[in-house]
Amino acid sequence: MKVVELPDGARVRGRGLRRSGGAVEPVDYGLYLAPFEPAWEHSYLRWPDFWVPSDPDRAVALIRDLHTRALAGQQVEVACGGGIGRTGTVIACLAVLSGVPLADAVTWTRAHYHRRAVEMPWQRRWIARVA
């Protein structure tokens, strides 16, 4: 689990659900890329492990909403099973929304979140959808 501060000042917590078992401090809103039913407000986005979202348009809308909430000062998080590939891809998308150039998004995310974030080449290409 790690809180990342984006270049525009928005903050997001990224984590793996398998590691934490769901037992963490609550947030105002969570975007979950693996099935998880917390007590707080959340959205579930079907995003198969090692792939890209099943519904790209909904994914872009939810990622943009997550960014808007974070900019407004809400405590937000994004999480998937392992907390690296899918979560890292969303954090890279948030980085682009906060001003990181698309070409630098993966490098930025690996430096600020997890060294192996955005695991697959198609996940790297998918980040352009939010740009």
Walkthrough of the structure:
The protein is an alpha/beta fold and 131 residues long. The protein contains 5 helices and 5 strands, in the order E-E-H-E-E-H-E-H-H-H. Strands 1-2-5-3-4 form a 5-stranded mixed beta sheet. Strand 1 (2-5) and strand 2 (11-16) form a beta hairpin. Helix 2 crosses helix 3 and helix 3 (85-97) crosses helix 4. It starts with a strand and ends in a 5-residue tail after the last helix. The model has no long low-confidence stretch (mean pLDDT 94).
Secondary-structure blueprint of this entry?
Elements: E1 2-5, E2 11-16, H1 17-20, E3 29-32, E4 42-44, H2 56-71, E5 76-80, H3 85-97, H4 105-112, H5 121-126
Parallel strand pairs: 2-5, 3-4, 3-5
Antiparallel strand pairs: 1-2
Helix pairs in contact: 2-3, 3-4
